[in-house]
Specification:
CATH superfamily of the largest domain: Fumarylacetoacetase-like, C-terminal domain
Helix content: 10-25%
Largest sheet: 12 strands, mixed
CATH architecture of the largest domain: Alpha-Beta Complex
Distance between the termini: 36 Å
Structural class: alpha+beta
Number of helices: 8
Number of domains: 2
Order of helices and strands: EEEHHHHEEEHEEEEEEEHHEEEHEEE
Shape: globular
Bound molecules: magnesium ion
Radius of gyration: 19 Å
């Protein structure tokens, strides 16, 4: 299933994609299904089954009823699938060997995952502008990433069971102000500015993406390919990232884990490239969808 959050009459609504249409889950279930993604995730697998039954082609719903609850995808404004995460997004640095190499990491590849976080205020949805503040940074860079949405809470999760805790996956862009990242040493500031985490266009549930290490991800700027890689090249796969993070630390439903970016980022290019106002960034994961954002001066 492809679950999304969209705007209707100024409100965030929860929907499921059915072909080229968005089915409003609260309306389709007469208010029985939750109206936010976080609430749906928290309700667990039973709620997901009900989503399947209201969005399916079952005989219970006639054509008139279906028209009432569904709108064409191209007529709605999508928001980030989780517009406001409950807590910081956990990110992973240097999780592809070729990106570690282009970043001139000199003391060898990480032996354990490098975790850092982005605050919830970084999250924006598809087509929302990535803010460009000339007084803050002129070294703004892109990073396409596979993003894991945690479904089931857990602590001390075994690697073998880790994928059972995944609700689904989406596409993310770990936008980074490289000058701030370096100046403040810890990466939080340079990766934590408002609007620095485009997410979307929707969540593909884990049953439809069985192997997160067999996914192609790419990113283009103004139509020119900058990153093109395979998640099989991660140094630490999704199961290992979840297991290691969860040791002594509870993961909660709705937590987001960004799994790192491959090579091809701007600062490592020769000459270095940074985003400018008007640039259009398209982050894509074949099995999920396309996340497009333009850069806009604030
Ligand atoms: Mg990153």
């Amino acid at each position: 299933m492809r679950l999304l959050t969209y705007e209707r009459d100024g409100e965030a609504r929860l929907g499921v994609l059915a072909g080229d249409a968005v089915i409003d889950l609260a309306d389709a279930s007469d208010g029985e299904l939750p109206d936010t993604m976080l609430a749906l995730i928290a309700e667990g697998s039973e709620a997901l089954e009900r989503v399947g039954s209201v969005s399916g082609d079952g005989p219970s719903r006639d054509e008139t009823a279906r028209e009432r609850i569904s709108v064409p995808l191209d007529s709605v404004r999508l928001l980030a699938p989780i517009p406001r995460p409950a807590r910081n997004l956990v990110c992973v640095g240097l999780n592809y060997a070729d990106h570690a190499a282009e970043s001139a990491v000199t003391d060898g590849l990480p032996k354990d995952p490098v975790y850092f976080t982005k605050p919830p205020t970084t999250v924006i949805g598809p087509e929302a502008p990535i803010p460009w503040h000339p007084h803050v940074s002129r070294r703004i860079d892109w990073e396409v990433e596979l993003v894991v949405v945690i479904g089931r809470a857990g602590v001390n999760i075994d690697e073998e069971q880790a994928l059972e805790h995944v609700f689904g996956y989406t596409v993310g862009n770990d936008v980074t102000a490289r000058d701030l990242q370096r100046r403040h040493q810890q990466w939080y500031k340079g990766k934590g500015l408002d609007g620095f985490c485009p997410l979307g266009p929707w969540i593909v549930t884990s049953d439809e993406l069985a192997d997160p290490q067999d996914v192609r991800l790419s990113l283009s700027v103004n139509g020119e390919m900058k990153q093109d890689a395979w998640t099989g090249d991660m140094l630490f796969g999704v199961a290992r990232l979840i297991s290691t993070l969860s040791q002594g630390m509870t993961l909660e439903p709705g937590d987001l884990l960004m799994t790192g970016t491959p090579s091809g980022v701007g600062f490592a290019r020769n000459p270095p490239e940074y985003l400018q106002p008007g640039d259009v960034v398209e982050a894509k994961i074949d099995a999920i969808g396309l996340l497009r954002n333009a850069v806009a001066e604030e």
